[in-house]
Write a structure and sequence with these properties.
- Helices cover 53% and strands 12% of the residues.
- The chain is of the alpha+beta class and 312 residues long.
- It has three domains: 114 residues, no CATH class; 138 residues; 32 residues, no CATH class.
- β3 and β4 form a beta hairpin.
């Protein structure tokens, strides 16, 4: 059984009208838009959109493969490439396709900050990249399953700092924590320093810049999740640093898949080797929390427990 599958793509720029990846193609819609509107039962298809085409042997394999391909495009390069509609047919008869959480038109409803630029000469490079990532042991790991879910979810959302519409940052932070912080504590320090050590291990200047970038990113993420407006300074910073931030998130996820072990125990050891808070930092944190205790009886009880531990 041959199932022809089509996906409408937006936010893509290329020097070619057709990109051939071997087992699938991506082409400008052009004069086919009328036929494709009938196939998709939608008038929201334009001649400057792109159409992905691939044949499958079963309906069940389509959603996972389409999601993999979208993920690999987004990991390959910065840009808001969007898969917005999916349709399939069997011997010219439309087939029922299930909804997919990453196929939507949310980030195609506005002018994206970053177009996904892809020249025809990059097809072979992308294929090599995709094959290499898929061969990595961590590609099928539990931690990467979570990281990819939130990375894709974030990339499917609009990015409009001028309107405080930057919810994708919350998903990106979750993707980074899924990748870098199995311990579930000291998240900002662990994410920022482990990210820097992972993608710039031999460049102190770059490492320091990455740590600063991610700490600022987390400050903004905190404002979002705690119900505050961004403010003009943060809006300007996000507008000026969106490409750098998108690049660093991708570098972390890609390098982690390539270098971080899939198993939980080995992963914890590898990540702790990149960075872990010192005992002095843990002590300072505990002391500051102790100072926040207001009730004298509780302070005395906790102090006694600490003294008991210190005497061991």
């Amino acid at each position: 059984m041959k199932i022809e599958t089509f996906v409408i793509i937006r936010n893509l720029e290329s020097n070619a009208e057709r990109l051939n990846f071997g087992d699938f193609t991506i082409s400008l819609v052009g004069p086919r838009f009328a036929d494709l509107r009938q196939l998709f039962s939608s008038g929201d298809i334009n001649d400057d959109d792109w159409i992905f085409e691939k044949s499958y042997g079963s309906l069940e394999e389509i959603p996972t493969d389409i999601e993999d391909i979208l993920l690999l495009f987004r990991l390959y390069s910065v840009g808001d490439i969007a898969f917005i509609k999916l349709a399939s047919r069997i011997q010219s008869v439309p087939a029922v396709t299930r909804p997919n959480r990453v196929i939507n038109d949310l980030n195609s409803l506005c002018h994206p900050a970053l177009k996904f630029k892809f020249e025809s000469e990059k097809c072979e490079s992308w294929k090599a990249f995709a094959e290499g990532i898929r061969r990595c042991g961590s590609w099928s790991s539990e931690w990467f399953a979570a990281a990819r879910r939130f990375f894709l979810s974030g990339g499917a959302k609009p990015f409009r700092p001028e309107q405080d519409d930057v919810d994708r940052l919350v998903d990106y932070a979750t993707a980074l924590e899924s990748t870098l912080v199995p311990e579930r504590s000291y998240n900002v320090r662990r994410v920022s320093h482990r990210a820097a050590a992972l993608i710039a291990p031999d460049d102190p200047v770059q490492k320091e810049a990455i740590v600063r970038l991610i700490k600022r990113f987390y400050e903004i993420r905190s404002r979002i999740v705690h119900g505050s407006r961004l403010g003009d300074e943060n809006r300007q910073w996000l507008s000026g640093n969106c490409r750098e931030l998108e690049l660093r998130v991708r570098q972390v996820v890609v390098t982690a898949v390539q270098k971080v072990p899939p198993g939980e125990k080995d992963r914890r050891v590898a990540l702790a080797g990149l960075f872990d808070p010192t005992d002095e930092e843990r002590g300072s944190f505990a002391f500051e929390k102790f100072r926040e205790i207001k009730t004298p009886e509780v302070r005395k009880a906790i102090a006694a427990k600490i003294a008991e531990l210190a005497g061991e």
